[in-house]
Amino acid sequence: MEKITIKKGIQLYLLPDQKYKTFLLRAYLFQPLKKETVTKNALLGTMLRQGTEKFPDRLSIVRQTERLYDTQIDADAQKIGELQAIRVDLGGVNPAFLPQSETYWQEALELFGQMLLCPYAPGGTFPEDVLAVEKENLKDRIEAVINEKRGYAMQQLLKTMCEDEPMGIPDDGYKEEVDGISGSALFAQYQEVLNNSPICIFAAGSFDAEAVTTYLRDILKDLPEREEELQKPVVIRRAETQKYKEERLDVVQGKLCMGFRTDAVGNEPGYYPLLVMNSVFGSGAHSKLFNEVREKMSLCYYASSGLSRNKGILMVSAGIEFKNFEVAKEGILKELEKVKAGQITDSEETAAKLALCNAIRAAEDSKVQQIGRALSGILSGDTRTAEEEMAAVMAVTKEDMMAAAKKLTLDTVYFLRGEEEAE
Predict the structure, then answer these.
(1) Please, what are the averages of pLDDT over each run of 10 residues along the chain (423 residues)?
(2) Can you give the chain as a three-state secondary structure string?
């Protein structure tokens, strides 16, 4: 990965890979995740794709992308740990493989720059008619979270566990705030984001690095310099007390979620032992949670665990019968105790490491995952290559995993149960 500084606080990362004939250009404008701005930024992400100064509506944007050999362009907002990013994507076929494409990079990057820098906002306000539609779409997205109960339960776990931390803020903000956002207020927020946010741009796949760099320098030349450092996440090393939250909804399957503080984040020596330990414990069909709690004990419809790399959190998610809450919780904790005690078979260790290495290799076959892995490394401060990551995984010992497991402290248990059953 090559890093090019466009100017202070604006970085371009080149990830060329000639096995592709296509490219993906992705820009992130990073904001601290805050209650005061999360809803505006979520709305802003979708408003940027509705029109630009030169292409003032979706139809004119689509017509331009069709002219450019069906190039794809989009914008959105994304929660990344305790950051919120406004994201603009441009993707298509490398014009080296296209006929009559001498001006492709100039025109494609002009469109990219238009969406990033010149949203359609006459008089310094986003059009209220378009804004009204996007407000309804945002409210629908916020309301829809509860319809996917597994994801909803995990969101509620984080809300409870991290109630005084940015991580507990919902991805798309707060429904009750949406209607009060005016076109002028949203445009003011856009200017704040554009002029002050650290910007990371990634180019992945097959592309002309010189052309991309040259045109991006020109497009971004009038932006002011800004702080380079991204806000670091709040890391709580251990849980001093345990929280419990129970919620009752019209569901037929209980959702048990457990959150642990891990005392290790992505750029620390303890991270890779934690990563492999989590793979043994609950990440995949080779894990203890899957084979013991789900298969042998038949306590769960599903059971898995995952890590938040830069936050230092391990989360367990399980679908259970309501009556099995206590026994399932104890079964999950029992499997963790086995890992702490070193009850890890050679086959479990081998399967866990191979699964992680296969995932690292698979990321090399996706431009989106290549960018995601590069961004994760930048945010964590650990920019190892794929080969170096796999070597770090394979170097983890059973004793390392035991030590990582022993550092886990249970912070929060969340249980979603049925209304009729609870009565």
Answers:
(1) 96 96 98 97 97 97 96 97 97 93 94 97 97 98 94 96 96 97 98 98 97 97 94 93 96 96 93 97 95 92 94 96 96 97 96 97 94 94 93 97 98 93 51
(2) CEEEEEECCEEEEEEECCCCCEEEEEEEEEEECCCCCHHHHHHHHHHHHHCECCCCCHHHHHHHHHHCCCCEEEEEEEEECCEEEEEEEEEEECHHHCCCCCCHHHHHHHHHHHHHHCECCHHHCCCHHHHHHHHHHHHHHHHHHHHCHHHHHHHHHHHHHCCCCHHHCCCCCCHHHHCCCCHHHHHHHHHHHHHHCCEEEEEEECCCHHHHHHHHHHHCCCCCCCCCCCCCCCCCCCCCCCEEEEEEECCCCEEEEEEEECCCCCCCCCHHHHHHHHHHHCCCCCCHHHHHHHHHCCCEEEEEEEEECCCCEEEEEEEECHHHHHHHHHHHHHHHHHHHCCCCCHHHHHHHHHHHHHHHHHHCCCHHHHHHHHHHHHHHCCCCCHHHHHHHHHCCCHHHHHHHHHCCEEEEEEEEEEHHHHC
pLDDT of residue 422: 46
Asked if 111 and 90 touch (Cβ cutoff 8 Å), the reply is yes
Number of domains in the chain: 2
Assess whether 165 and 311 both reside in one domain: no
Closest CA to 86 of 125, 121, 119: 119
Q: Are residues 298 and 187 in the same domain?
A: no
39 and 126 co-located in one domain:
yes
Q: Which domain holds residue 172?
A: 2-219
- For residue 124, count CB atoms less than 10 angstroms from its CB and return exposed for 0-12, middle for 13-18, buried for 19 or more: exposed
- CATH value at residue 306: 3.30.830.10
- Token readout for 319 is 């679908």
Looking at residue 423, its pLDDT comes to 47
pTM: 0.93
The reply to whether 83 falls in a domain is: yes
Domain ends where: 219, 235, 260? 219
Q: Is residue 182 part of a domain?
A: yes
- Same domain membership, residue 197 and residue 296: no
Q: Residues near 191 by Cβ (< 8 Å), separated by ≥ 6?
A: none
Residues 306 and 346 in one domain: yes
